[in-house]
């Protein structure tokens, strides 16, 4: 089975969030199911060295304002197709943002181009490699199935995964022809979303199958509260929508072999976490905590409930806990966190920025990880928390609800609790959850058992990769039948 992934980021090469982790790890798991994956990615500056060692496999003349080529290379076990288009991707700044932190004004063109290149590969293949299925991810690649629908040739079926429905890629309709979109597609049943082009809506409309990243989120996005205006369309496509839980790369995220940890540890030796905790508290000049060391590793946004975290800080400090926050995002939230850190300088630190090594270190040192998201399609940091025995304290929403077993009376009695859940968006419930955590922490045997269960909890891709493989196989047989008719 040959599947083309098209995505805007892929770990470890280029990452701003969980999408990159999924694109960098799911293909490895799928290979184990007999699926051959190629990943089409923009050649951002961080990929330039890789691109210079890659083999050119296609030239795209007059490509959205310049010349482009597709280059093929294998790195870290992943087969990459790099879309080299300097006029679109080779610039200082972020993947999506200017150095000043605003969206690149031509993002609509940059990601339409990525989608268009994906459609070209569907038609022409790369050498003798022709995809049987295309798997697109989020709004940045949503136009790909729309481009395929414009082609008379036999296109492969498309799976679209929604990683976060809040980001939809709305584009002024005046760009329709510049983006090489047939104006006949610009209808309420097609690309149009209240007078604009919606890339995510295009993906949902023109793909054969839609997946999202957890079963609970698949239900949530059918509601007006969480569907961000696309709930009607999704309800109409309910039979084609399925929630498949994300997994993680358990080799990359392994506390037994993690080079970022001063003291690696296993389920059996998890008490060594204490030494990591001591080291990090010393490094950050925090007083040695009597209570748990909490961490947060997150985009600093309202979605992630960072405002709720700000409200809960006095409660945490009163419980004699320590807190280290690693993140970046909303400037006001960054500032408020820094204000709190200077007020509680013995107990709290904030590291503004994106630091992969620090994320590993924090997981290896912390007793618990706080994830107070208002909504969370899947969330990966709770899975890393489980793997590293940093007990996840999570809002009961999306994938957080699907992956963490709350330490209530029933689950503690049945010996299966792995974390703490609380009602999403409710700051009193969040503070209560922190209290519950501190209380459990004071009971060493209960706490130690919970860490063991968390670390043993299955967080890899096995089941979910098999589910995706199943979808691909079904689509290929459906395509065969429909072309035979
Ligand atoms: P998102 O909605 O941001 O994609 P996820 O929980 O799905 O949230 O994934 C976030 C990913 O980004 C995780 O791998 C997490 O460890 C990582 N991450 C988030 N913020 C930072 C940061 N400041 N430094 C390092 N890694 C980060």
What would you note in describing this structure?
Helix 1 (18-31) packs across helix 18 (462-484). The model has no long low-confidence stretch (mean pLDDT 96). The longest helix has 23 residues, at 462-484. This protein has helices at 18-31, 48-52, 86-89, 107-124, 144-149, 199-206, 215-220, 231-236, 273-283, 306-318, 331-343, 356-365, 381-387, 398-403, 409-413, 427-441, 444-456, 462-484; strands spanning 2-6, 36-42, 55-60, 68-75, 78-84, 133-137, 158-162, 170-172, 192-193, 196-198, 209-212, 241-243, 293-300, 322-329, 348-352, 368-371, 391-395, 420-422. Helices cover 38% and strands 19% of the residues. It has 18 helices and 18 strands. It is of the alpha/beta class and 485 residues long. Strand 4 and strand 5 (78-84) form a beta hairpin. It binds adenosine-5'-diphosphate (ADP). Adenosine-5'-diphosphate binds at residues 17-19, 21, 297-299, 326-328, 354-356, 359, 378-381.
């Amino acid at each position: 089975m040959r599947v083309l992934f098209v995505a805007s980021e892929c770990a470890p090469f280029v990452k701003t969030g969980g999408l990159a982790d999924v694109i960098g790890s799911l293909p490895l798991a799928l290979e184990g199911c007999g699926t051959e994956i190629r990943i089409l990615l923009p050649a951002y500056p961080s990929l330039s060295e890789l691109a210079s060692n890659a083999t050119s496999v296609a030239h795209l003349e007059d490509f959205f304002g310049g010349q482009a080529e597709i280059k093929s290379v294998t790195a870290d076990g992943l087969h990459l197709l790099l879309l080299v288009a300097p006029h679109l991707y080779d610039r200082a700044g972020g993947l999506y943002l200017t150095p000043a932190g605003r969206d690149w004004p031509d993002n609509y063109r940059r990601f339409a181009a990525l989608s268009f290149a994906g459609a070209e590969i569907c038609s022409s293949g790369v050498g003798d490699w022709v995809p049987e299925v295309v798997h697109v991810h989020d709004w940045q690649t949503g136009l790909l199935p729309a481009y395929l629908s414009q082609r008379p040739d036999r296109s492969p079926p498309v799976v679209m995964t929604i990683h976060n429905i809040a980001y939809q890629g709305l584009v002024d309709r005046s760009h329709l022809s510049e983006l090489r979109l047939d104006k006949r597609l610009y209808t309420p049943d097609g690309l149009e979303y209240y007078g604009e082009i919606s890339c995510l809506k295009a993906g949902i409309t023109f793909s054969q199958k839609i997946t999202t990243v957890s079963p609970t989120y698949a239900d949530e996005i059918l509601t007006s509260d969480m569907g961000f205006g696309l709930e009607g369309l999704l309800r109409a496509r309910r039979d084609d929508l399925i929630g498949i839980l994300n997994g993680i790369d358990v080799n990359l995220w392994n506390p037994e072999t993690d080079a970022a940890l001063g003291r690696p540890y296993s389920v059996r030796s998890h008490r060594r976490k204490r030494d990591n905790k001591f080291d990090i508290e010393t490094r950050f000049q925090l007083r040695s905590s009597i209570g748990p060391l909490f961490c947060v590793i997150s985009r600093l946004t309202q979605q992630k409930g960072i405002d709720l975290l700000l409200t809960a800080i006095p409660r945490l400090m009163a419980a004699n806990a320590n807190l280290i926050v690693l993140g970046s995002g909303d400037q006001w939230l960054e500032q408020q966190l820094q204000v709190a850190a200077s007020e509680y300088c013995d107990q709290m630190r904030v590291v503004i920025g994106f630091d992969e090594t620090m994320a590993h270190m924090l997981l290896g040192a912390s007793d618990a990880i706080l994830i107070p998201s208002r909504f969370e399609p899947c969330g990966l940091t709770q899975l890393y928390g489980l793997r590293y025995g940093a007990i996840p304290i999570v809002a009961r929403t999306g994938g957080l609800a699907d992956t963490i077993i709350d330490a209530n009376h029933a689950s503690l009695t049945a010996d299966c609790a792995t974390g703490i859940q609380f009602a999403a968006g409710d700051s009193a419930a969040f503070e209560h959850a922190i209290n519950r955590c501190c209380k459990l922490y004071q009971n060493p045997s209960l706490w130690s058992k919970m860490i063991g269960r968390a670390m043993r909890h299955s967080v890899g891709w096995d089941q979910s990769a098999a589910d995706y493989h199943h979808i691909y196989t079904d689509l290929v047989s459906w395509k065969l039948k429909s072309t035979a008719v």
